[in-house]
Model the fold of this input.
Amino acid sequence: MDAEGLHLSMNYISSSGIVLSAEQKAALETSMVILRTNYKFHKVWFWGKILGIKDDYFIAQGAGRNELSNRKTLYSLNCVEWHLLPPASETAMTNSKIIHGRFQGDPSYEYEHTEVKRVGDGEDFTEEEVTIHLKEEDRLAAVISSIDEDAAIVPRGAFVRTPLGEVHTNRSFEGLSVTEAGKLSSYMHFREGQYHTKKTIKEKADLDPSIDFLDCIEEDIPRGSWSLKFERGSGLVCLRSLMWLGQTFYHVPDSRKYGRVYVGTGEKNLDIPFML
Done:
């Protein structure tokens, strides 16, 4: 969610059990203004919090004028001092899926995982032990990247792609109507489109290329991995990811107010097929 107005935005998702102390809100609002200036960001978001055993990681993201690409991620243990997180490598993305359990809360902590691999075919095989080492800072980057890929969403029309390919906030976006806000088809993944290009010519004819360049969450697999619920009558809609428990998105219909935040352990819900 946008760093500006963080205090008010957190109230919209408090029904999900996501809260910050008054001291944390004050520290975040102040430090992210400094963060925006120091890194020359066009916009800064409070991404959320990953709960650790020793300490929690507070996460912020910033971007230039093209808000979809070149986003930088930073983390803090005290809401004041921020450290730039390196981009997640392919090796870290692969190894992070093997490592299970809570984060320690220590960026320098190193995970060690040993597994036995079978080498050879038939009766002429041997078993070899392979040890994987992964630094917690690298695991943190990989998990944040995975959550962004699977569960970072925005309302349809909130962003527009220019003829030059840059993605900017749509200044003419006035919010979804109550009817549209109740449909999963009105929400899009905030990432480069992956399967909207596979649509048929007939389906593409109904799309506006300037705003329909993102993937719709209605097409996510497995089906039913999003929970949509109206609150405060029809004055607020909240979407929660069942794949990444703790990811919450809110939108106030007929307004420009929307945002998302993740507060959880950073562990993917592998039991989702049994929940649907």
Q: What stands out?
A: The mean pLDDT is 87. The longest strand covers residues 110-119. Residues 1 and 259 are 4 Å apart (CA to CA). The chain has one domain: 6-275.
